[in-house]
Amino acid sequence: MAAFLAWSKHTVGDWWAPVRVQLESSHHGGLSDPFATLYDDARGLLHHHVGTALHVPWVLLAVAMLLVCWRRLPAPYTLFALAVLVTALAGSNLDSFERYALGAFPLSIAAALVITDTQVERGVLALLSAGLAGYALLAFLNISVP
């Protein structure tokens, strides 16, 4: 990280340029209360803002996987995943939450630890397939833009 920030200082003259760019309103936006952001996004479903409401179940799943990390993985993995989730949730919107959560690889390891039974694995694969079809349908109907 230090090398990347040094490269940023050398290239654009600002150590914190990557952070400043992410905080611009045209990108991830400034910092905000994660609970207020989650509440607003969940409430969006009532106001026909399906796209914003679709982030809420993924946040809940990521928090559940963070708990699995805490119980079953070494502490540095949990701390890394926690730092990524806090950073992703602290933005003014959750538009890129899923992408940030996938960058927190301990969450994927935790999911693999949970899905050890064949029946659970089949159920998860069926649920994910249905979710993918649902997302595609919402995109085709122009209800949600991926």
Describe it for me?
With 146 residues, the chain is mainly α. It folds into 2 domains: 1-30, no CATH class; 32-114, no CATH class. Helix content is 71%, strand content 0%. The protein has helices at 2-12, 17-22, 34-43, 50-53, 55-72, 75-89, 97-103, 105-114, 118-140. Helix 5 packs antiparallel against helix 6 and helix 5 (55-72) crosses helix 8 (105-114). The longest helix is centred in the C-terminal third of the chain and has 23 residues, at 118-140. The model has no long low-confidence stretch (mean pLDDT 85).
Rounded average pLDDT: 85
Distance between the termini: 30 Å
The coarse silhouette is globular
Order of helices and strands: HHHHHHHHH
The fraction of residues in strands falls at under 5%
Structural class: mainly alpha
Radius of gyration: 18 Å
Largest sheet: none
The figure for the number of domains is 2
Share of helical residues: over 70%
Q: With helices defined by DSSP (H or I, 4 residues minimum), what is the helix count? A: 9
Q: What are the low-pLDDT stretches, counting only 5+ consecutive residues below 50? A: none
Give the strand tally: 0
